[in-house]
């Protein structure tokens, strides 16, 4: 009786259906005390449903959940929290206008005399939690004044303050720079040593190998693989995720024959605010230009400036040999530019509007019958686009919010390709999408370039960048520090070093 | 082409998919109408005269609600419309007495253009919240109207003006009714069938995404507030024509009825949706309730209490999240 349980979480034969469509079919998942267990699978494979059952957001139809050896009912999120389940949200559940300690103790403030909040004690406790985590943070700082990396750590501290024994981390490195990611991994090691168990959801294979002990893969709502990472190869994991062996889409093919000699875009000495200075490069028809760099190196700022969202203060931009001064996105579109923005939910889509409305928003001029918009033309155009980009949607009048992340991204890409741009800029187009969709998107990028369009691609995943780019610019502190032809990059490590500035 | 069974499937599906937030106003309208028809049939509720009266009394609210639907669909608000109506009525009356009919109409419209342009400019380009801009404008405009008239009414004698702006009939129909029908019809078409309408809803649904898509969101906000000002000025002239005078009090408090009508009609205060026909029924619903309570013999204070309660319940129902 006195021996402590070995299993932090044991989920057995979990079944769940929505509107009689099965989402989880007899799924098993176990997490040992002090273990980091990766959970992988395509979007829609059932990962988030399984985790929401563990957090008490959804109720399972059948099956059993044990936390630390005891059967728990998990009727709501409070029950899950009381059982020791903590969630580190991908979209942060923090209030920017409160301080770090106020966020950590929100709804669980330690009270002092007369039922008033004991600020001193709360601050001290918050500081202790961060000290235990080995992280230096001013707990009295307002959250909005801190970098995003510290938001993530505050989320973790918040979960620990509620005595979480199990932490669920959903794509925790998505918004982190390399050194911040390293700090997070070191923290995960320390948490493990203290007996905290972690479920680590990620699409990034290198991270999974670095941080996790075991991996469970779900496919179509069923267990596809559970293994020690020491015992499986990345190829086996990918095969389990997609259910088939991947073709060699991640290897670069020489496309130099397809790239035209004349520049479609020529940027000279471009500067914008304090974040971009003296940027110069050419982009040719049929070329895929990769932008590499850390978070904040100026990649997003560069494409935003070219698209007229940020103002250029210095330098010149030529399109097809003509000097242009881009005033706003509408002007950029008329010049043949398109930008697939970094944050598809905030910048790419009107979530509550239908798939059809989102797809046709930039195309309305071509969808008129006389003075008014033609519903028939809109419906047909959207139907064609859904077919072309193989967007999985039951009804094109459905709000785009109900689509999976990968399909939402396809809507954003489809919307932009519909404008038939001559220069397509894509900012992290594969972030947070599953590996199958990722392959589809990369194949699409190649096709677009083969079609004679020029592409600028931003990606933080170097293997992806290396697999499609014909040329790679490395940015650091708002400047272009290197300009490589793909053929001159011998390995991922070489590029990684250039990005890190070593 | 479809067989009866698929048609039934479709109607079943329709019942399941029925969006309460969007459509509660029609249900509410019918229920309240039937209720009043039964309870107040003896007091003449269902007489043609009374029904036309309701339509006439709610016409100005309906017209302003059409413009407000666009404003709210972009997630902005315009609190200045009632006072703009008042100022337009007095400016129009004053200009008419000195320079004639055309000058009067032009002057009235100019009030809406100027106030709407100031509201729109401050919101669109200086990024001042529309709530604050138009709240300030409300007081300012009333002040100007009282100042230039010394708070006195300005009589209107021009028969043509009265005939066109709400006092007379167009053929068999009261002109106010015709104005309202035209505004609602044009508004509904613009919202649903034009690029402008789509861009208005995209701007309200997600300003950032709309901007990234090449929608000039600042210009959309400017136009919507400009439109709201101009339409409020027209409503003011309709008051002036119907009541044969310009007075700063015309339209006082209308902004609240108009906003209530728009929300009742299924437009989201958070932007992204705009139901013009719904706004019309929202306005008619409010008119129906006002009329019924008067016929029921309630005194003014009781009317206020009951009307407030009915609007709270109806707005609560119409802003309830759709349960899928």
Automatic annotation (TrEMBL), chain A:
Keywords: ATP-binding, Cell membrane, Membrane, Nucleotide-binding, Repeat, Translocase, Transport. InterPro entries: AAA+_ATPase, ABC_carbohydrate_import_ATPase, ABC_transporter-like_ATP-bd, ABC_transporter-like_CS, P-loop_NTPase. It is a peripheral membrane protein. Residues 9-245, 259-502 form the ABC transporter domain. GO terms for molecular function: ATP binding; ATP hydrolysis activity. It comes from the Bacteria. One of its GO terms (cellular component) is plasma membrane. SUPFAM superfamilies: P-loop containing nucleoside triphosphate hydrolases. It is found in: Cell membrane. Pfam families: ABC_tran. This is Ribose transport system ATP-binding protein. The lineage of its organism: Bacteria, Bacillati, Actinomycetota, Actinomycetes, Micrococcales.
TrEMBL record, chain B:
The chain crosses the membrane at residues 23-41, 61-87, 99-125, 131-149, 170-191, 220-240, 276-298. It is a multi-pass membrane protein. One of its GO terms (molecular function) is transmembrane transporter activity. InterPro entries: ABC_transp_permease (IPR001851). One of its GO terms (cellular component) is plasma membrane. Its main location: membrane. CDD domains: TM_PBP1_transp_AraH_like. It is found in: Cell membrane. Pfam families: BPD_transp_2. Keywords: Cell inner membrane, Cell membrane, Membrane, Transmembrane, Transmembrane helix, Transport. Signal peptide: none annotated. This is Ribose transport system permease protein. It comes from Alpinimonas psychrophila.
């Amino acid at each position: 009786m006195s021996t402590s349980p070995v299993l932090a979480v044991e989920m057995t034969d979990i079944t769940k259906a929505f509107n009689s469509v099965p989402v989880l079919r007899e799924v098993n998942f176990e997490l040992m005390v002090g273990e980091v267990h990766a959970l992988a699978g395509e979007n829609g494979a059932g990962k988030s449903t399984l985790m929401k059952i563990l957090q008490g957001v959804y109720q399972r139809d059948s099956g059993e959940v044990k936390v630390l050896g005891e059967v728990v009912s998990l009727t709501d999120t409070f029950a899950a929290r009381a059982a020791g389940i903590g969630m580190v949200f991908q979209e942060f559940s923090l209030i920017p206008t409160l301080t770090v300690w106020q966020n950590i103790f929100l709804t669980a403030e330690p009270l002092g005399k007369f039922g008033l909040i004991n600020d001193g004690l709360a601050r001290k406790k918050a500081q202790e939690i961060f000290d235990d985590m080995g992280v230096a943070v001013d707990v009295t700082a307002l959250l909005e004044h801190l970098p995003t990396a510290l938001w993530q750590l505050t989320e973790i501290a918040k979960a620990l303050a509620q005595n979480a024994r199990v932490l669920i981390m959903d794509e925790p490195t998505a918004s982190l720079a390399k050194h911040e990611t390293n700090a997070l991994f070191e923290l995960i090691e320390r948490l493990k040593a203290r007996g905290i168990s972690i479920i680590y959801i990620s699409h990034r294979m290198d991270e999974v190998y670095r941080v996790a002990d075991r991996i469970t893969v779900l496919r179509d709502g069923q267990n596809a693989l559970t293994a020690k990472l020491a015992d499986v190869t990345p190829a086996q994991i990918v095969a389990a995720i997609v259910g088939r062996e991947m073709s060699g889409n991640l290897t670069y093919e020489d496309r130099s024959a397809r790239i035209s000699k004349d520049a479609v875009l020529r940027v000279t000495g471009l500067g914008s605010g304090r974040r971009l200075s003296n940027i110069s490069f050419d982009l040719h028809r049929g070329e895929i230009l990769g932008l590499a760099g850390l978070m904040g190196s100026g990649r997003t700022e560069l494409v935003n400036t070219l698209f007229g969202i940020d103002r250029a203060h210095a330098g010149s931009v030529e399109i097809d040999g003509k000097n242009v001064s881009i005033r706003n996105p509408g002007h950029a579109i008329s010049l043949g530019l398109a930008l697939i923005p970094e944050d598809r939910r905030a910048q790419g889509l009107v979530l509550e509007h239908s798939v059809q409305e989102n797809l046709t928003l930039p195309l309305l001029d071509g969808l008129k019958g006389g003075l008014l918009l033609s519903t028939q033309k809109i419906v047909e155009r959207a139907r064609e686009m859904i077919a072309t980009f193989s967007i999985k949607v039951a009804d094109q009048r459905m709000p785009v919010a109900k689509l999976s992340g990968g399909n939402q991204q396809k809507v954003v890409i489809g919307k932009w390709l519909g404008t038939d741009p001559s220069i397509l800029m894509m900012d992290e187009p594969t972030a947070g999408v599953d590996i199958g969709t990722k392959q589809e998107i990369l194949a699409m990028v190649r096709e677009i370039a083969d079609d004679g369009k020029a592409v600028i691609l931003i990606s933080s995943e170097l293997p992806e960048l290396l697999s499609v780019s014909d040329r790679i610019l490395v940015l650091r502190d708002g400047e272009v520090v290197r300009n490589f032809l793909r053929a001159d990059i011998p390995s991922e490590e070489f590029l990684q070093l250039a990005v890190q500035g070593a | 082409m479809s067989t009866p069974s698929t048609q039934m499937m479709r109607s079943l599906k329709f019942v399941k998919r029925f969006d309460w937030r969007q459509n509660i106003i029609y249900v509410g309208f019918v229920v309240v109408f039937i209720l009043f028809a039964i309870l107040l049939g003896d007091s003449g509720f269902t007489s043609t005269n009374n029904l036309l009266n309701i339509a006439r009394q709610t016409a100005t609210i309906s017209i302003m609600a059409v413009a407000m639907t666009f404003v709210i669909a972009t997630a902005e608000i315009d609190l200045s419309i009632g006072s703009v109506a008042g100022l337009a009525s007095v400016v129009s009356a004053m200009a008419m007495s000195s320079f004639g009919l055309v000058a009067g109409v032009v002057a009235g419209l100019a009030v809406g253009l100027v106030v709407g342009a100031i509201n729109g400019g401050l919101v669109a380009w200086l990024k001042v919240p529309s709530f604050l801009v138009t709240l300030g404008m409300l007081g300012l405009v009333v002040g100007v109207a009282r100042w230039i008239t010394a708070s006195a009414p300005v009589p209107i004698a021009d028969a043509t003006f009265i005939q066109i702006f709400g006092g007379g009939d167009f053929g068999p129909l009261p002109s106010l009714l015709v104005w309202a029908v035209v505004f609602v019809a044009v508004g509904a078409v613009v919202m649903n069938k034009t690029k402008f309408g789509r861009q208005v809803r995209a701007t309200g649904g997600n300003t950032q995404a709309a901007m990234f898509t090449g929608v000039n969101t600042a210009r959309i906000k400017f136009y919507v507030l400009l439109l709201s000002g101009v339409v409020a000025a027209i409503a003011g002239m309709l008051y002036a024509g119907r009541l044969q005078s310009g007075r700063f009090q015309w339209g006082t408090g209308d902004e609240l009825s108009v906003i209530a009508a728009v929300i009742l009609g299924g437009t989201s205060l958070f932007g992204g949706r705009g139901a013009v026909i719904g706004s019309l029924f929202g306005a008619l619903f409010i008119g129906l309730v006002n009329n019924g309570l008067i016929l029921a013999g309630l005194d003014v204070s009781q009317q206020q209490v009951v009307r407030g309660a009915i609007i709270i319940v109806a707005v609560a129902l119409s802003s309830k999240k759709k349960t899928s």
